[in-house]
């Protein structure tokens, strides 16, 4: 069994926190701060224990690059790795890496300049080979690879390693250089995280913060993951693991994809004993929103919205884009 029960002291503390979140005796800021801080510590302990005790929750996101290494990555290996990530390696399509390997070695004849070989097609010709190349089931993702190839050749001379070479101690800069390729932020985060796991770059970095991470963290700490934005999810991850939030990404992804989906399977979840959503669902109650407000602040109407609601206001300069 993956699930580990809390100690009696841990169970007692969770019961105390849940009771306070359901019916706080007062809205004293210090009490609210203490409850939320204690809850974050309990969740942090549970996630770290899960990662340490179960290898599946601590291993790298993908096995494409093999074991962690300090040996510089080859150009062909780097380009194939990036292509697989751009094809959404986390989408659940287990054939993506095999498809990329076959495409590079058999279709393109193992070229030194992988991205230029893609650009040897016309854009129309590339799109017409969607079914032949079978890289991804979504035509839009297939088409996106051509535009990425164009940018990698333009910015990085067709060598994906240039994205992180010289920036090995600066994950944030690697992330920004990836965004120059006009890829989704979640994919850029995932690439940086895998490179960290494999030892090619070092330093703290955020979780991906996608819909899965947001849902799991929102439920575990706030009792509701439906309105947690990627920014809020990353903020929660920094509270839980301030030294390096990335260590949470793999556990959150596995919890979210295995148990904490749109229809949660709380009874089987390995962290159900420390999850606010699971405990409150079991008791048929809801946490007081004052604790959520403490973490993120109360919702407020934006000033720009107020301007649009004022008929006497000149709106001619309000739109900047």
Overview of the structural elements:
There is one protein chain. This protein folds into 2 domains: 8-59 and 208-296, Orthogonal Bundle (Endonuclease Iii, domain 2); 75-197, Endonuclease III, domain 1 (Orthogonal Bundle). Helices cover 55% and strands 0% of the residues. The protein contains 16 helices and no strands. Helix 2 packs across helix 15 and helix 9 (171-179) packs antiparallel against helix 10. The protein is elongated, with a radius of gyration of 23 Å. Mean pLDDT is 85; it is low at 1-5 and 300-321.
List keywords for this structure.
disordered N terminus, 16 helices, elongated, 321 residues, Endonuclease III, domain 1, 2 domains, disordered C terminus, mainly alpha, single chain, Endonuclease Iii, domain 2, 0% strand
